[in-house]
Design brief:
Length: 345
């Protein structure tokens, strides 16, 4: 079996009704019964009185509560979230394919001047140079179902709000019988504990009802709207945002940037895999051999080593003992949810 070249990236600076949304509130806030928004999507709101009480007790914003939860020790000991999908439905099912015209939104370069480090190419092997991307980072969250702290990978996506992140569905909700995750933060360009672009706390978590109710791995995708930073800057304006595409062929030349944490990796820095994706049942697949911690990473078509931007055509969902990584196929349903959350602030 051929495995695409995998090496450490050298440090650089740098239909909506199908989905459910969680509005995040204060730490320990009680959850109200789901309501229906105008599109018919279930929206789980946090009880107002409980939010106010939690905020008043701590004297902190919701974003600060999540960010302050993540001490260096908690980040270091967080568990790879791939353990949350081991009991999910792994049957291939009916192959998905284009369910409408090809759709896409272009990537967006950052517009905010920052003290980003210069790009540094990865060394060795086949003469390939791949730079790390400030749009890619680690996700940390608390799972109230078992009291565990978990880690995933994620990345930014260009949208009207400039506040959108994408990851796996199991990185925001535990699936069938599970709960919404809490204290969810995104750390772009995480580098062995360093967070040069800060921590960005989630305001809304969104994923498919098919994942929430049935742990359907063909819908293991999530969208996260984050709060602006303390300077009221939007995430994509600070680090850039990748484009997104749907209803394209399974076969694409893909670059994956991720934070695999299980051996031979340590989760401290971005790793990359490049190669041609292929169809495996109703999933996209690549033989990358990425381990736990890479869940939620972006599968980027047309990745540019100069801009460190690409177009999201998949999200890392699962891995297996043969080194095969898989992603949900991006069809019209994925596109419709993206459109429904693109302008949410």
């Amino acid at each position: 079996m051929h495995f695409p070249d995998i090496r450490r990236v050298a440090a650089v600076t740098a239909s909506a009704a199908l989905a459910a949304v969680m509005t995040l509130g204060g730490a320990g806030a009680a959850q109200a019964a789901p309501e229906q928004d105008a599109s018919g999507a279930a929206t789980a709101s946090t009880a107002k009185a409980s939010v106010s009480a939690a905020a008043a007790r701590s004297g902190q914003s919701v974003a600060d509560q999540a960010s302050n939860y993540w001490t260096p020790e908690r980040m270091r000991t967080a568990i790879s979230a791939d353990t949350l999908v081991k009991k999910a439905d792994t049957k291939s099912g009916t192959a998905l394919g284009p369910t409408g015209p090809a759709r896409s939104v272009p990537a967006a370069a950052p517009t905010v001047s920052s003290n980003a480090l210069g790009k540094t190419a990865a060394g060795g092997g086949m003469g390939t140079n791949v730079n790390a991307s400030a749009t890619v980072g680690k996700v940390f969250f608390y799972n109230p179902a078992n009291g565990g702290n978990y880690v995933c990978s994620a990345g930014t996506v260009n949208s009207g709000s400039k506040l959108l992140v994408m990851s796996a569905g199991h990185c925001v909700h535990g699936g069938a019988g599970g709960q919404w995750m809490q204290n969810w933060v995104f750390v772009p360009y995480y580098n062995y504990g360093s967070a040069p672009y800060g921590q960005w706390s989630a305001k809304y978590l969104t994923t498919f009802n098919a994942w929430i109710n049935s742990s359907d791995l063909s819908r293991d995708v999530s969208w996260i709207t984050v709060w602006p930073n303390s300077s009221n800057q939007a995430l994509v304006n600070v680090v850039g945002g990748n484009g997104i595409m749907a209803n394209y062929p399974y076969q694409q030349f893909i670059t994956i940037l991720a934070y695999p944490a299980a051996p031979p990796y340590d989760g401290g820095w971005q790793q990359y895999c490049q190669g041609n994706s292929y169809q495996s049942g109703n999933k996209m697949a690549m033989n990358c051999g990425f381990t736990g911690g890479s869940s939620g990473s972006l599968w980027l078509q047309g990745y540019s080593d100069s801009t460190t931007l690409g177009n999201v055509d998949g999200i890392m969902s699962t891995l297996d003992g043969a080194g095969v990584n898989r992603s949900s196929y991006f069809d019209t349903a994925v596109w419709d949810v993206y459109v429904s959350v693109a302008n949410r602030t």
